[in-house]
């Protein structure tokens, strides 16, 4: 399946011309959202032994399905490598990419993509074995450093070592699982990628307690869902689904109380949930599209907590991913 998909993507890469069909109509006719995800990163997108996918990025896919189809489970997941991910969006193989992908100028302008927003504010970090005796990235002179091919981490680490007049030997590998194997067996001293992924990947090591993530964050990595350029209606739906998750948390609307919110005395809550107003019509969706999102998937805080936060194996602090009124950067335009 994976090799067949890779061949398909390579074959379509040469076409370069994105499909003209309206993705919203295609999704409604098909009855599922096809979502490009990672090949397995704990907390973000990974299948269990029964093949059921879960994670933060998975919940973004589920939220879009809930908004469009009224059912968060109507998603088909396509695991993609870093090399396959952009071609899959360009060619229309997937409707949506939700795969720990950094929003950059070049990707947003020259790859036929449009990023719907930032779902997770991240930054590149470093993980080392504790017995290396290193407590700062500034002490990594001469280290061998594993990075994943086709990612922004390659350039970031080169810039960081050059700026700090440090030497290093890059070990470039084409998959996250390949890096874990190399790192676990001592082929490289350092594993560098987004800090969130380091916490996730550490769980795959033979003895996770023997490894530590260093304090330095050397880049800005705004991660978010991306769609194909030229399909503005679909772009708006994905963007406002993400905003709805964030806005629901600010309004105090949760998976458990969304039903009660339909008769709330607060007009902003009723408008958000579709009991009043016409936001659904403006997006070409059901009037209660946002209600469907929150009642079936939860709000941003709930998604973060169960997949990445203290209720998860990763136990990542909200930090800058907290709401704007709690010291973070999460801020959504109002649904009105």
TrEMBL record:
Keyword Chloroplast: no
Entries under Pfam families matching the protein: SBP_bac_3
Listed InterPro entries: Bact_solute-bind_prot3, SBP_3_CS, Solute-binding_3/MltF_N
Domain Solute-binding protein family 3/N-terminal: 32-261
Entry annotated with the keyword Lyase: no
Signal sequence, renumbered to the chain: 1-21
Keywords carried by this UniProt record: Signal, Transport
Family membership noted in the UniProt record: Belongs to the bacterial solute-binding protein 3 family.
Name assigned to this protein: General L-amino acid transport system substrate-binding protein
Native source species: Aminobacter niigataensis
């Amino acid at each position: 399946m994976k090799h067949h998909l890779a061949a398909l993507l390579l074959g379509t890469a040469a076409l370069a011309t994105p499909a003209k069909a309206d993705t919203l109509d295609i999704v409604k006719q098909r009855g599922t959202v096809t979502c490009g995800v990672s090949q397995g990163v704990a907390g973000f997108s990974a299948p269990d032994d029964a093949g059921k996918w879960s994670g933060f990025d998975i919940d973004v896919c589920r939220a879009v399905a809930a908004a469009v189809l009224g059912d968060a489970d109507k998603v088909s997941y396509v695991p993609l490598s870093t090399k396959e991910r952009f071609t899959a969006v360009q060619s229309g193989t997937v409707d949506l990419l939700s795969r720990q992908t950094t929003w950059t100028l070049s990707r947003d302008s020259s790859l036929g993509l449009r990023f719907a927003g930032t779902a997770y504010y991240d930054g590149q970090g470093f993980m080392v074995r504790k017995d290396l005796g290193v407590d700062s990235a500034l002490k990594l002179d001469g280290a061998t450093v594993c990075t994943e091919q086709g990612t922004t981490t390659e350039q970031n680490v080169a810039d960081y070592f050059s700026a700090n007049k440090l030497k290093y030997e890059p070990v470039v590998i084409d998959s996250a699982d390949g890096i874990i194997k190399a790192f676990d067996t001592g082929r490289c001293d350092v594993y560098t990628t987004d800090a969130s992924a380091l916490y996730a990947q550490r769980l795959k090591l033979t003895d996770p307690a023997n490894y530590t993530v260093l304090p330095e964050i050397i880049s800005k990595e705004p991660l978010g869902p991306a769609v194909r350029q030229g399909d503005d209606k679909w772009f708006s739906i994905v963007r406002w689904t993400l905003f709805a998750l964030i806005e629901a948390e600010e309004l105090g609307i949760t998976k458990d109380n969304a039903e009660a919110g339909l008769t709330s005395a607060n007009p902003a809550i009723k408008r958000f949930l579709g009991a009043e107003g016409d936001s659904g019509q403006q997006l070409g969706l059901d009037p209660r599209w946002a209600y469907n999102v929150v009642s079936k998937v939860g709000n941003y805080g709930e998604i973060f907590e169960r997949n990445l936060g203290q209720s998860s194996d990763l136990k990542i602090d909200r930090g800058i991913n907290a709401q704007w009124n709690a010291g973070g950067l999460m801020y959504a335009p109002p649904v009105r």
